[in-house]
Specification:
homododecamer; alpha/beta
């Protein structure tokens, strides 16, 4: 089983970026936790980050055959990118939407996810734990 | 560790209620899966369902001391009950919001959760698996 | 043929409650008229009222096998209860929505029915006659 | 007793027009059913259809003295015609609004009826049966 | 003179529930203050709380003859319950709306009261004092 | 000078239609008053009414060369007809919008005039006097 | 007969203020035209302007006994002043709303008049002629 | 192949009506261009215009068997006519929506087309050329 | 203890202004009632009215040191004045918002109070009694 | 004559991406059809695709002198990119907006085109044929 | 060069009014800073404050000939005064809008400036520095 | 002191792009003016432009340590980019928002700035002068 973790804009700032909202772990530390758990579960993962909407679209488009499930933290693009949405539905690889913070408890404009309608499910608000939960969720999505 | 699973209106219909949306497992079968995993994790759980908004409020109010974390599938009341929201914030027990279906991919009126702003996080769209993921999430919430 | 008439909050006040809007007949007198006509038509009816949203949900859930058609005057819950809507769609018994007054001619917030999208049809504005018309409508729904 | 049945735009297409939504009966067959039942009830009916908003207004204006009750399926004009509304309120003949389909369960723009506030009541969603129910409703409106 | 104080959902949590918003007095202590002042004024009071919308509706319906004025802190139901509104207008006992906090200074969804249009007046924002002021207001409403 | 008075739907009901709103004069009596004043002022008038949107459009289209100013009481079409608006702007004859009632003091949907942006001015709320004032206004528009 | 013409903010700029919108006549020249016509009609007029909302309110409050009709060009306050509206309805002197420009053909925020619902009628878009038409309208309002 | 070109209200004014927006060609000249190209392509065309919504509905209803594709410039009715929409979907003849001007670049109320959801496609903004392009589009629609 | 009662626009009309809405007492009679009760309570009061927004702002700004609590009936300015709001928050003297009528039961635009978010509480709907209740409320605010 | 065809995000997925919506042709096959027709017409074309908003902006900026007309299928960016809009209006090369699907018949958020107001016209809903029609349209735009 | 600095309601409270939002300098100290810099630049300034909307309008109207540029901190009136807007556009003296705080980062109702569309530019969020920057901006506006 | 000037999409078109809106200076000429003034003030500046949202995010992320203040003309991304907003708040370098044109006086969609809530202040409408003013503003922000 191969899962593709995609991280959107500003997630490379984790650890320094508003730790009260996003926690104190760096993205690299989160990747480490994900890899550790994936190793235990026998799952291969690919873990990427980009500030570029186009990179994320390209990676989603390249995923068929390379990944069984995409786990996507689209960050700010969650709320503004129809193009990401179309990439997900056009590519057809099952996708899980994750967020470090509980977006539904923040500013009004973060309550709306443009990608949710084409994703299998959403996990939000558990910090780094959102990534680990998504790993389990992906296994169950793959199995379904 | 003790977790309280609360299930809102019509979840007692599971298995027969619109299986295309909610899956084919009964609530009792889901409870069984939760209890099995909880047993493995050494967690005590309480698992209840009611069609009554007042019952849910009462149970949330009684939870301090009895539960470390509430895992709440408020079903339809998610979108209409300010009273549940006030019960959660008034009681202060950390609460995780779960949904069987991906509410953000359904009718517009299901996109808005009145309880989200007072919950720690949200897991939606993974069917019975949402309950099992919440068990892990609750452990991490308790630990934080 | 068995029909279940369910009456929502404050309908027990009929006759005394704003007769200019709702008419001068009591709910019991309406029940009498319904029973009289049902008798003539050879239809068995069950006729209930509750101020409790949960009671109404419970009764709808219990209806399969006991009723061929539900005739529902949800009163105020028409405009606020997603839970009733989910009970109707989850249970699957054909349901007819009725109102004593013409809700579309009253305050703006009464124009919107949350249950309409899961009901077969709506009869509104004919006072007690709405109940009698629904009896005919139910027979035709059952026959279809 | 004389009742005037008025049918708005595209109802002459019935039977062929989207039978999944509107049923398989032609307007002429519905008229036949109405005439048959009216005959049994000793009611004289007039039954007309036009695609023209002006025709419908003219007919409503001509109704005093000729009809005790108007039964109006305004079809698409339900949602766009203030002029029909003014004709009804200006003429003063009691009017019953009917629809073949349950307009409240369809596209958002069909939920709003501009004529409802000046009609006695509304019957929607029962197909041809809506017309037959309206006949009973009209008798009760006339009697009130 | 007899006044009925009705308290809605979560008010039984007072004292512990978000004291920064609602104050440090328990509902029982507030009841004590109300009874003390009522005693001085020679007024009989009944003081109840429920988390159940149906209980509140029932109590309002039972009030004619038992209470001259209802003093209602509907709490969360203020913003969501059309059924309470209909109970008040259907029963006809003059009702005063009270709130511990200044609802107009809080979240947007608390600014709108569904029951206000059928109440005589509103007192909000004075903590326990809102109850004592309402006692005076009720005497003046009774006298008018 | 030649002025064209155009009257929209239901204005032929004047005198009998809701006299509390529209006054007790018939359209024919208003025409008489207009003709009498026009005679005194040496103005030729043409005075027409139709319930048909298309008739009104046709008459506006035919007006160049036949009328110096159009005085238009579009009645209900004021609020729904983009086609009338386009006829006025497409034809180019200066047009004055009149109303018997003060549309801005009535239902919300009557506050918006779709034709106002292509008319010279608006006179509303003076009953039959609105027509006589428009005669003066038209002379000044013609002179400008 | 005595009429009170009240002019709101910035109308003292007339003649120099955006002549393309408001015309080239000064307010004083308009006053002269009004006085000339009033003289011919045997009507006494009082003609005032202020940039102060409070002045306009005071003048309206002082008008009973001094004026039979108020003719009010509230200018910018038309769209923002609830206080002017309350002064008109509280004082009870019949009031005619006038505007030099056709406010319904300008920016969206000028389409809404807060005072219209308490005025008898509205004349807008005829420049200085709006004032002269209002004189005739006021005579007919007084006579009614 | 037979195509039916239908033209809505005010299109008979073309050439004189706001040439800056709609161009300088008359509808008759456009018809000539269409006929010339249709002749070259071996397509029979019918080309009609009416200011009447009912005429357009009638023509659409009569089209099955007479036309393979309808090319509809509904003009102002594009934005206000649910009846035209229902005629198109009820009749079932494939329909192409055209506009001379780019409606999406004009007033806000022209951006919304009520008929678009039941048409195959839309061509807007190319003046008379929109008609010629639609001829090609219709051939491809017919072929599909 | 010194309290400053400030009264906004048109409150000088009380007694004559729409007595059905505002009651039959003049502002001077209300002042008398307030002074009488204040005397009994040993409180010094200052009682003022102005139609000018600027006067009200000035008085609020001058209140520190002169008044312990402001009791403000801002009347129409309640709904339109951000400047009053800023004066209250900028000056810092605790302020109680009062209204004679129940603003939440009137026109939609009166439901929104711009000053509420910076006031301690609101008393609305008890006529002159609102002033007397505010006196008690102010004592409790001062004591808190 | 040189035309620049620009294709936005996910159009490289054509053929595999939701063929029910977008058709079964690949972008490369569409390019082939365009080149074939362009060859016949003696037009030079440049045909590009990118998932990057910035690429599209760069290409538009580089077009003056290189292209007479831009034919732009902005795909998802149609609904979200003000930057593309500004590139078009800032560069000044006439631009034609095209879409494979009829965007006005899909989700609400696809009805709004941010680029339409700065484009000459729009062709939507004809699949690959939209591209071929645009070629004709571009020739006529160039000629105008 | 002569510049007129106008300050709106509550700015006389500066230094004491919510220093966290508006800073600790008094308006008089800001005036001093402005005068000092103006002196260095050889610019004459006039610096005024009023809580009265009418005063501000009067001062703007008097400015032609007396001031080359107006620098306006309209404070709360920024968001509510159409009259100020009309004064600026009617008078024609170039006006610069300034704010101490960043109004776009505060409550939603402060994001909208009614006067912005008639001002040259806006400087907001730099505290007293906003005034000094405006001095430079005014010189460049004057020079343009 | 080091300041980073970042310029968003299409600003490389300056001078040729809609000079009526944006002025006739090229971005390079503006950079020259900024460098000249910065030199006089002893400030080091870095001045960049990109059409890519990702480039702008990257540059903001790299700014800590390299720049004391960011001066950001985000152009079209001002209104659509949550990602830029998150980059600013996540990075923590004080940022000043500038615009050549007065965005508040243009199309409605340009009135809303998504980045304003995380910027210190905004300068808009002064053309190239906005950049020079921002230099002064940045010095004062740095000093504060």
């Amino acid at each position: 089983m191969k899962f593709l973790f995609l991280n959107g804009p500003n997630l490379n700032l984790l650890g320094q970026r508003e730790p009260g909202v996003y926690g104190r772990l760096t993205l690299s530390e989160i990747e480490g936790m994900v890899r550790e758990k994936a190793g235990r579960l026998g799952v291969t993962i690919d873990f990427r980050q980009s500030n570029s909407e186009a990179d994320l679209i390209d990676w989603i488009q390249q995923s068929p055959g390379l990944a069984d499930v995409i786990i996507l933290n689209a960050a700010a693009y969650t709320h503004t990118s129809v193009a990401l949405r179309d990439a997900i539905s056009g590519t057809g690889v099952p996708t899980i939407e994750i967020h470090l913070s509980n977006i539904h408890a923040r500013e009004e404009f973060r309550h709306k996810s443009l990608i949710a309608p084409v994703c299998r499910g959403q996990i939000a608000g558990f910090g780094a734990q959102s990534y680990l939960l998504a790993l389990d969720a992906a296994i169950s999505v793959k199995a379904s």
